[in-house]
Amino acid sequence: VDREELHRTIEALREDFSRALALVRDEAGLQALRDRMLGRKSGAVSGLLRSLGQMAEGIRKEAGQELNALKASMDGSLEGALGEILGRLRAERLGREAVDLTLPGRLPPVGRRHPISAVREELEAIFLSMGYEIYEGTEVEDDFHCFEALNMPPDHPARDMQDTFYLKGRPGLLLRTHTSSQQIRYLLSNPHPPEVRIVCPGKVFRRDNDITHSPMFQQVEMLVVGEGITLGDLKGTIEAFLHRLFGPSYPVRFRPSYFPYTEPSVEADLGCIVCGGKGCRVCKGTGWLEIMGSGMVNPAVFEAVNSRLGKTVYDPEVVTGFAFGLGFDRVAMVRHGIDDIRLLYENDLRFLEQFRG
Amino acid sequence: MKVPLGWLREFVDVKASPRELADALTLSGLAVDGILEVGGETVLDLDVTTNRVDAMNVYGVAREVAVLYGLPLKPPETTVSEAGKPAKEALSVEILAPELCPRFCARVLDVRIGPSPVWIRERLELVGVRPISNVVDLTNYVLFELGQPSHAFDLARVKGGRLSVRWGREREALKTLDGADRVLNPRVGVVAGLEGALGLAGIMGGAASEVSDGTTEIALEAAHWNALAVRRAAKSFGMHTEASHRFERGSDPELPPLALARLAHLLEKIGAGTCRPGLVDVGAAPARRKVRLRGARIDAVLGAAVPPQKVRGILEGLGFSPEGDSYSVPGFRGDVAREEDLIEEVARHFGLDKIPSSLPPTRQTGTTSPLLRAEQDLRALLVGFGLSEVVTLSFVSEGDGRLAGESPVVLENPLSEEQAALRNSIVLPGLLSVLRTNLRQGRRDLGIFEVGRVYQAKGEGPWPTEVRRLGVLLTGALPSHWSQKGRPFDLFDLKGFLEAIPMRLEVRSFESSSAALPSFLQPGRGALLVRGGATLGYLGALQPEMAGRFEARGDVLVAEISIEGLFEGRPPAVRVEPLPRFPIVQRDISAIVPLTLPSLRVVEAALRGAGPLARDARITSRFDGPPAVPAGHVSLTVTLRLEHRERTLTNDEVQAAVQSAVQSLKGLGAEIRGE
Q1: What is the pLDDT of residue A63?
Q2: Mean per-residue pLDDT over chain A, rounded
Q3: What is the ipTM of this complex?
Q4: pLDDT of B214-272, one tens digit each?
Q5: A-contacting residues of B 319-358, CB under 8 Å?
Q6: Where are the beta strands (DSSP E) in B331-410?
Q7: Contact A264 B481 (CB under 8 A)
Q8: Residue B562: beta bridge partners?
Q9: What is d(CA B606, CA A118) in angstroms, rounded to the nearest whole number?
Q10: Calpha distance B139→B156 (Å, rounded)
Q11: Contact B145, B59 (CB under 8 A)
């Protein structure tokens, strides 16, 4: 082998390698090319290196250097190509794992509180934080607790058969028409008379059924009794409560009203939360929502309770009190734009599932 | 109550704009619901509370306006130039029932019946009354102006000119002005002539003595009737008139003479007739009530000091007269009976907005009842499980009230047959009705619950018992996803929800028992929930016939639990167990057992057999069907976990425990797979 022939051979191998490398697409092809060039047994370059010993003394050293350089360059190219191939394969594999995240996720079952419960729990939390006792009485009531003790003697308009549900075969028993009956229950069983500071949420019942009246609806009653309780306290408490419930940005106003069991009686209005006071369908153009009835406890109520207790526990000359009642279905209705109260009790899930809660 | 401003201004010269006036009235207790413009006149629409009968007329509203704006209140014109023979020669009145009628006044008038002048007709139309003829129109005019209902009798049709006031007679007949034939009784007051009842006292006149076109001589009645008597009578006939509305709420006993004078004056003014001399006035107005008012009490109730001059100014303006430390109450304020009533009068004209807001002092912290807390926690838990809360009406039909097997509490006066009784179950029919509502909307999958009271017929004396219950209903499947269809709900979903309750809440654990299921559950597919000897409730699949009644086809899974029972007795506080320090060994045993053998027995047998090293055992796999498992049998895999608290278990110990568990299972008749 002369020098010229050696160089031709090396060049041919180099070209052969380059051409083959350009065609390699995967690891197996790369391995095959490595075997063909550098394989221990059948590799062309390895074969030439093995035959160095039979070469003429004069070119042996030079040939050795050039062949080793060729081997090193091939190794390098193979290594680089391998990296490229692996990188490409990895990218392809990861590409195949890509997902369409515009598809909806797998929801856990999502349940919801009924909007009435949501409001009720909110009310209870507010009053708990204001230091009130939450008190529940019975839904079935008698005449004394529901009317008589509340200064509604027989034949009072509020006791009309068309308003009150009576129980059959149980004379004098009825479904409470308001949570005010709980005032009497608590006053009679008060563990620390004469002080009272309670709220009573619950269901009430009236013989009425239309878009704004359900025969069953929800009220919360509150009662504060003690020495030195004033109409100013009533105002401050209602303002604090309504600001907690609706936010401090809505004004509250008070206007005289009438309830047999309070005197003076006061209606509390809230600046319309729908239109912000400009006037809309919900507030009937007035800018105000009638939100709750309230008043100073009528001394007649204390007298009726004292009379039932057989002693003067609540001396109207010593203790005063205030009470209010709020229909909280209406809170849910105003807040969520519900214009038919019956929707609240039909339990159509297309309705209920619109709420968070 | 409609108040035309032109009419109002006859009595008080108020310059405020309608809007200002409406706001001022609303904030002082006469709520103005609307301001209407009708044919160039402004009309305030007032919603007057039932106690304020004094403000159910134009003059009464004018009195309020006069006080609000510090203006003089002009009395109505009542001058009359009487003519002819004295009235008492043509009319005599006798009160036979003073408890029904404390005072009866009348005047006799010579009239020419015809249409009223335009101004009267227009005003009547503004307040919502149809004009008829001058005499009838004037009675309505004075009713809306002064609040005194009155009635005109055609004197030619009152035999002998004699009227009496008495209670009705049993089965006495009267045709009222509305054309209805009424059958009277002794609980109904009447104005009567010699030949029988001529009108229903305080409610409506009768047809027999009605004023007609040919009438020339009338007796005008203005009386003060007992409120309760009018109310009971009107209610018994289902009648409600402008007159009864006012009399029921308490009329002014001092008003009749003034109202009659006003009527006579107006009759003359419009040229419709003249008035005979004299007022027939039988009975008397009771003495005015005196109510004490202390300045200190005003401060104590209102929490604001109102200057004494201000107090006096307000009350005098409203018609009260000071007498020593008291005020005498005018007849038109029958609603004012005690000191607080006077304080309210002061407060509403002083201005509620001038009373400073404060918060009452407190000596207590906020508290709630354990059961209320329990209900709230239960709701939160079940909502977290993906169930939606519903709230159903407490009313059910009597038939539906018996579905749960007990007689319901029944209403005396239900709104409808569908709402004639009170529920005694949450599930039946409440949750099933919700199911039907939603099935009709095309909804197939449903997981709902309700927390609320049911009413049991038996209780203390006549009282029903109110008990708190949780009801749950599942049907259809869990939510589907594009990746997989939702799995159908089965009984073990329902059971799992219930079993999770003691893991999350302060509830002692409870067990299932297959004894004596309620009849509305499918046999073999339900269980009672029991603790100790007490039954807390049930769970199971509804009988298909029962489900069918509510239009459901597939499985309907229901549970109902007593909340009082569930939360009865608190579980002991959690004391943590030390974490295991040595490895726990787990071994599976697969046993083929008869289908009739409850899996609980298999688990118990494995535990018992494995002895003191057993930490726990549970079923981790279950399958049946040939060829692997013979018919009537099931293969259960029990996974047994073994541990020693002080050291690592040896192979021999594990082997021995497993062998012994296997023997115990064989004792139940089990065949062990892989043996």
Answers
A1: 85
A2: 92
A3: 0.89
A4: 999 999 999 999 999 999 999 999 999 999 999 999 999 999 999 999 999 999 999 99
A5: 338, 340-341, 343-344, 347-348, 352-353, 355-358
A6: 388-389, 395-396
A7: no
A8: B469
A9: 47
A10: 19
A11: yes
Sheet (strand B196-200) strand order: B92-95, B162-167, B189-193, B196-200, B204-205
CA B574 to chain centre: 44
- Closest-approach residue (CA) in chain B for A217: B393
The tokens for B602 are 């298999």
Q: Are B468 and B452 in contact (CB under 8 A)?
A: yes
Q: Best of A140, A223, A225, A284 to disrupt the B interface by mutation (most B CBs within 10 Å)?
A: A140
Tokens of B646: 């002080």
Whether B466 and A138 lie within 8 Å, measured CB to CB: yes
Does residue A158 have a pLDDT over 70? Answer: no
Cβ-based contacts of B51 with chain A (< 8 Å): 258
Rounded CA-CA distance A210/B415 in Å is 12
Nearest 5°: phi and psi at A353?
-75, 0
How far is CA B206 from each of CA B92, B141, B214, B385, rounded to the nearest angstrom?
Answer: 19, 20, 17, 69
Counted residue by residue, chain B has a size of: 675
Segment B418-455, tens digit of pLDDT: 999 999 999 999 999 999 999 999 999 999 999 999 99
Q: B6-16: per-residue pLDDT in tens? A: 999 999 999 99
- Tokens 């335009």, residue located: B118
Q: What would the pLDDT profile of B634-657 be if each residue is shown by its tens digit?
A: 999 999 999 998 999 999 999 999
Instruction: Please report where in the chains the tokens 């064989």 appear, as a residue.
Output: B666
**Distance separating alpha carbons of residues B338 and B482, to the nearest angstrom:** 73
R_g over Cα of chain A = 45
The angle formed by the CA atoms of residues B281, B287 and B292, to the nearest 5 degrees, is 155
Closest residue, chain B, to A345 (C-alpha): B392
Helices (H) and strands (E) in chain A, counts: 12, 9
The structure's pTM equals 0.87
Distance between CA atoms of A30 and A25, rounded to whole angstroms?
8
Q: Which of B556, B555, B497 is nearest to B529 (CA)?
A: B497
Question: What tokens appear for A13 in the block?
Answer: 């191998």
Alpha carbons A53 and A49: distance in angstroms, whole number: 8
